[in-house]
Amino acid sequence: MRTIPTRLLEIAMRRMFQPAGLIVWLLLIGTAHADEAATKREFKALQGTWTVIEAQMDGDSFDRIVGGTLKITDVNFEIKTKSGSELTGDLHLDPTKKPKHLNFTHQSGALQDKTWQAIYEIKDGELKLCYAEADSGKDRPDAFETTKDSGRLFLVLKRESK
Questions:
Q1: Which of 37, 57, 131, 134 has its CB surrounded by the most CB atoms within 10 Å?
Q2: Of 56, 82, 57, 77, the residue nearest 67 (C-alpha)
Q3: Please, are residues 43 and 90 in contact by the beta-carbon 8 Å criterion?
Q4: How far is the C-alpha of 49 from the C-alpha of 80, rounded, in Å?
Q5: Per its UniProt record, what InterPro entries does this chain match (predicted)?
């Protein structure tokens, strides 16, 4: 059986920590809402058709993909290469990371069920992407660069006029 002083102590402790718990809860909800809002803004900024204007692979120029396009609609992507190949899938992004993260999860084509783990930056009407090839076993890049045997591609894309 509890004594009155113990019960009073429990009530006092609960009342003391309730505001702290509420503050933590509100901070977590606020952070999740801010992350969701940032993600929506980034998806909106990515919408449209982008053309590859520069490409590097493993530190060397990779001109055969220059001129290909990346079309982003909602959370979906469609890639058309100069040679006529088409790749489609879903995008997943995390703009809270530094640099920002973008995953291309392929739903069809030669890379079906594979994912490119990329970093990205949008600036002055250009989209910079750097990613590891899906089967390379390499981690997501942490910088917009490629080096010999890195298994990475670096692309600069320009937004097409509407």
A1: 131
A2: 82
A3: no
A4: 11
A5: CHP03067_Planctomycetes
Ramachandran bin of 36, using left for φ above 0, alpha for ψ from -120 to 50, beta for the remaining angles: alpha
The pair of three-digit structure tokens given for residue 71, joined into one six-digit string: 């079309």
- State which fold the 47-159 domain adopts: Lipocalin (2.40.128)
- The single-letter code of the amino acid at 39 is T
Radius of gyration of the chain (CA): 23
**pLDDT digit string, tens, across residues 51-68:** 999 999 999 999 999 999
* Residue 147 Cα distances to 33, 54, 61, 132, 157, angstroms: 38, 16, 11, 12, 20
